[in-house]
Design goal:
Shape: globular
Protein name: tRNA-2-methylthio-N(6)-dimethylallyladenosine synthase
CATH superfamily of the largest domain: tm_1862 like domain
Radius of gyration: 24 Å
CATH class of the largest domain: Alpha Beta
Structural class: alpha/beta
Bound molecules: iron/sulfur cluster
Strand order of the largest sheet: 19-20-17-16-15-18-21
CATH topology of the largest domain: pyruvate-formate lyase- activating enzyme
Keywords: 4Fe-4S, Cytoplasm, Iron, Iron-sulfur, Metal-binding, S-adenosyl-L-methionine, Transferase, tRNA processing
Catalytic activity: N(6)-dimethylallyladenosine(37) in tRNA + (sulfur carrier)-SH + AH2 + 2 S-adenosyl-L-methionine = 2-methylsulfanyl-N(6)-dimethylallyladenosine(37) in tRNA + (sulfur carrier)-H + 5'-deoxyadenosine + L-methionine + A + S-adenosyl-L-homocysteine + 2 H(+)
Organism: Amnibacterium flavum
GO molecular function: 4 iron, 4 sulfur cluster binding; metal ion binding; tRNA-2-methylthio-N(6)-dimethylallyladenosine(37) synthase activity
Length: 510
């Protein structure tokens, strides 16, 4: 039996045992959020999440932005081919940016794939899977432009306490290193009423934090002709009762206007945090990147943000080794980084992305030069991050307790979460302390700083100061639903309480 024949052997999702699925996600937050929508669409069509890696349907949500994305995808597909041979009825779907870019190349290189779909038609996945199964042939559907705003699709959220909300998709800029405009199309803005309705629904489900998401959030409104739409949206979201933390990503320095800074400063639930990509500190390189601001404007925005929001933690993205970058250009980047005092930075080594204008520019920088500059930049930024974090020692922080933020929490007996300024904080749970739930707020004092996190361990061993939240209650309910354990009552401050670990409950005594 050939792999193509296997397709017709797939039982219908209507069969008595629901088909299981898994979504593997590569790339940015936009992709992570898209994957929530893919899961939501599949579950609305009757699929159920697989336990572990063994699934009837494997969906790969690809990213074309990162280096070697193609190699990783085809490596993954190669492994899945042998899994599929041993599992009757299994289907493989590939979607996202790389699918949008490569289209039928994927089916030529990996003919055992059942469905290829683009960034504009995520909602079609269940029907494409069904069609591929029924016809016994691969389905390819790539739309060139968006038909339905993705946020109208069902969503399966990964977190009960925090959610992503798309305000726009696509981008009208033409940065020469970026593949997004050609894959995600022109910016499409969602109506403010729809955005606010989705936030309200999230809050009604227990979320206390949202992150507004767009390739270029502060050009929001360009489609319906309101230049101040983003600031207005922040203020309107700030009036939603029960919503305690609003974040957004990412703004573009060229479109960053003072009305947004005012809205940030005057809306208590907008967090004192800003992630704004610098990309380069050299004006010459910024021009070659077709980024229309210059370093002076960038630094001016930081000054104005810090003037209005003194505790703001500012982070950024920087690309090292863009074609034509000289040592002098790179030193400009170091200078701007030194002046900017970023709390953290995502630094990237430039590498060619086929299909982007920069890919064919002359003067590509040799790998070892890029590596050497990258290391110098990382060393500088790590030093600054550490200095900025050390300045936090002794300060009080409000930590939104997270699940899955602290990879070493099991070994260190700590829990983790994000402070209001988005710094990662780990804190010890003293022996006789009540234990917070993901979604609860913990009030602690920073005792130690590392470049990438803060510690807030109380040396006195006093019980944690916890504010139980609706988000914590929602976490309890979700845990109870997933393991048929009755949900616990909200934790009284300092009282023994039930901690749900996803298995039988464990009672923590005092
Ligand atoms: S602003 Fe530039 S880097 Fe960001 S998505 Fe648009 S084109 Fe890409």
């Amino acid at each position: 039996m050939t792999l193509l024949d296997d397709r017709s052997a797939a039982p219908s999702p209507d069969a008595l045992t629901p088909r299981t699925y898994i979504v593997r996600t590569y790339g940015c937050q936009m992709n992570v959020h898209d994957s929530e929508r893919l899961s939501g669409s599949l579950e609305a069509a009757g699929y159920v999440p697989a336990e572990g890696d063994d699934a009837d349907v494997v969906v790969i949500n690809t990213c074309a932005v990162r280096e070697n994305a193609d190699n990783k995808l085809y490596g993954n597909l190669g492994q899945l081919a042998s899994v599929k041979r041993g599992r009757e009825g299994m289907q493989i779907a590939v979607g996202g940016c790389l699918a949008q870019k490569d289209k039928n190349v994927i089916l030529e290189k990996a003919p055992w794939v059942d469905v290829v779909f683009g960034t504009h038609n995520m909602g079609s996945l269940p029907s494409l899977l069904e069609r591929a199964r029924h016809n016994g042939a691969a389905e390819l559907e790539i739309l060139e432009s968006l038909e339905v705003f993705p946020s109208t699709l069902p969503t399966k959220r990964d977190s009960t306490y925090s959610g992503w909300v798309s305000i726009s998709v696509g981008c009208n800029n033409t940065c020469t290193f970026c593949i997004v405009p050609s894959l995600r199309g022109k910016e499409k803005d969602r109506r403010p009423g729809d955005v606010l309705a989705e936030i309200e629904a999230l809050v009604a489900d227990g979320a206390i934090e949202v992150t507004l998401l767009g390739q270029n959030v502060n050009s929001y409104g360009v489609e319906f002709g309101d230049r101040q739409a983003f600031a207005k949206l922040l203020r309107a979201a700030g009036r939603i009762e029960g919503l305690q933390r609003i974040r957004f990503t990412s703004p573009h320095p060229a479109a960053f206007t003072d009305d947004v800074i005012d809205a940030m400063a005057e809306t208590p639930s907008v967090m004192p945090q800003l992630h704004m990509p610098l990309q380069s500190g050299s004006d010459r390189v910024l021009k070659a990147m077709r980024r229309s601001y210059r370093s002076e404007r960038f630094l001016g925005i930081l000054d104005r943000v810090r003037h209005r929001i003194p505790d703001a933690a500012i982070s950024t993205d920087i690309i090292v080794g863009f074609p034509g970058e000289t040592e002098e250009d790179f030193e400009d980047t170091l200078r701007v980084v030194e002046q900017s005092r970023f709390a953290s930075a995502f630094t990237f080594q430039y590498s060619i992305r086929p299909g982007t204008p920069a890919a064919t520019m002359p003067d590509q920088i040799p790998k070892q030069v890029v590596q050497e500059r990258y290391e110098r930049l990382a060393e500088l930024q790590d030093r600054i991050s550490w200095q900025e974090n050390r300045a936090q020692v002794g300060r009080g922080v409000e930590v939104l307790v997270a699940s899955g933020e602290g990879r070493k929490d099991g070994a260190t007996h700590r829990m983790s979460g994000r402070a209001r300024d988005n710094r990662l904080v780990h804190f010890e749970v003293p022996q006789h302390s009540p234990v917070p739930r993901p979604g609860d707020l913990v009030h602690a004092v920073v005792t130690q700083a590392a470049p990438f996190h803060l510690l807030a361990d109380d040396p006195s061993g006093s019980p944690l100061r916890i504010t139980p939240t609706r988000a914590g209650d929602a976490w309890d309910r979700a845990e109870a639903d997933s393991c048929a354990v009755p949900s616990a009552a909200p934790a009284e401050q300092g009282a023994p309480r039930v901690v749900s670990l996803g298995l039988p409950t464990l009672r923590i005594g005092r």
